[in-house]
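User: What would this chain look like folded?
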Amino acid sequence: MEQLLQYCWKHRLFPLKQLKTDQLQTVEVIDAGLHNTNAGPDFLNAKVKIDGTLWVGNVEIHDRASDWFLHGHQNDTAYNNVILHVTQNIDMDVTTADGRRIPQLQLLIPSTVSENYQQLLTIDAYPPCYQIIPSLPSLIIHSWMSALQSERLEQKTLDIQQRLQQCKGDWETALFVTLARNFGFGINGDAFEQWALSIPLHSVDHHRDDLFQIEAIFMGQAGLLNPEVIPLKYHQQMTEEGYFDRLKNEYLYLAHKFSMRPIDAKLWRFLRLRPQNFPYIRIVQLATLYHSQRFCLRNLVESTTLSDLKDILRTTVTPYWETHYLFGSVSKRNEKHLSEQSLNVLLINTVIPLLFAYGRHIMSDNLCARALDFLEQLKPEHNHIVSMWQDCGMEIQNAGDTQALIQLKKRYCERKDCLRCRFGFEYLKGVNNSHPLSEV
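Assistant: Here's the prediction, encoded as structure tokens.
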């Protein structure tokens, strides 16, 4: 319960009675301090009046006072500036490394807070705080959604910065890798990123005007020009068509020229995928887009409308794949354009974070603001996470809202990190507006 006790201290969920130390000194909390999630005391730079004297320093929190010694704080000089030890159970005195005795405050977690917290941890429903969603003030919802949206965009910015380091500071390569990852549309994202990183784009650029060669390089680097990965029942038709062998021979020549080695084809997942999402189709769509030379950082930065961005992303497949989803498996003709939903997903997960990250890089507030505007102009995403929040009564207006809810689910709900969630805070205060601070 130490984490919950820290929460009560941080949010000043104190019983409505005079606080006193173990030596019966009066305590008035002026500032609970800054919650420290790194090594050292739990709260930094707190301001506390003890018997009328203002103390400025750190606060340490434990379930039991004896935990101070269990954690070795009595020998750690980092705890010499602790001005108050807060605990549920004062079972012994505590001292600092310089021998100073620290005042202790017994702080009991209100029973309503404790009970509601246990409900959040154990309730078999998502989200666990669903009961209070309809009654939350719009200001609380909008402020938290805005914070979550920013948090998710910041997270994606960090991901792009890490790819940029892998690409030795080359923004165009980092852009391609980011796009490729999101062409995996979730299930094949890791494989697509590894595949993209294996392609020496600066060398491949010399063949960018030849779509067949680009397709051969892309398909070959994916490990998909190996007959062993093609079901045997398609081999005869594949041999008669000859397209597979032409691509393979072209790839072998170019792979030798550029010292390329393919990734393991076993990385690709096909199970439960719709044929439209098969790696073959997505890779050829990427090859066609790369060949067009539309998708580049300059074009993205100069685009001022969502329509412009979608035009940059639009792609299709080469003629062979209009009638195939696998080598040797003939299907009904389909040009296999990216759907409107797919375009929106790529905008949300690739283009907008890239514009925001690049805006940060060149210190352009206008570019960052444009990225945020694009996010709010896009229609809400449709997935099971969004649907569950809508079932709870949440009003969702745009893709910024859905990105916020995805962030909430993945970073808070799945980790049971309700103590850092503003909805969780409202739940802990008490369902049906009952307030734990009425307890004495």
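The first strand starts at residue 19 and ends at 20. If you want, I can go into more detail on any region.
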